What does this fold into?
Amino acid sequence: MDTSLLVEADEADLVRLSGDLLAALRRSGGKLVTAESCTGGLVAALLTQHAGSSDVMEGGLVTYSNSMKQSVLGVRKDTLSAFGAVSAETVREMAVGALRIAQDATHSVAISGIAGPGGGSAEKPVGLVWFGTAVRGGEVLAEAKVFKGGRTDVRSQAARHALYLVRQRLS
It folds into this structure.
């Protein structure tokens, strides 16, 4: 089977989804900021590949290490100690911290997970990704997904899901 066609289809899907999200942000008057760990800025890159994205894309923060999550986003050391970087509590604090930094943003999405191939455990397996979304003045939500495949697969599936979650919050 020629897997290059699948990769191209996935990339085309991500381009379409990111373009759709930008259009939805424009219609709603919203602006987005991302706080990414395991995706390493992939969500921000998907959005900013579109010309004119700066009218609704406020910025992207890649906070891969725990110390960066703390110093940049304001994630509490106690949160990381008690729950770990890959947790509902951490992504909620990441999402809130991103909104604090990007004062013109109306929405944020935060992503932290275990892309693999190592680093997983029975409690937190490889492929586990937590997502946090926040709306300025609104509720902060968190949800987890477990994605299958290698590191690249987990990261691209996580980016796709993050785009979906923000789109859902706009509805």
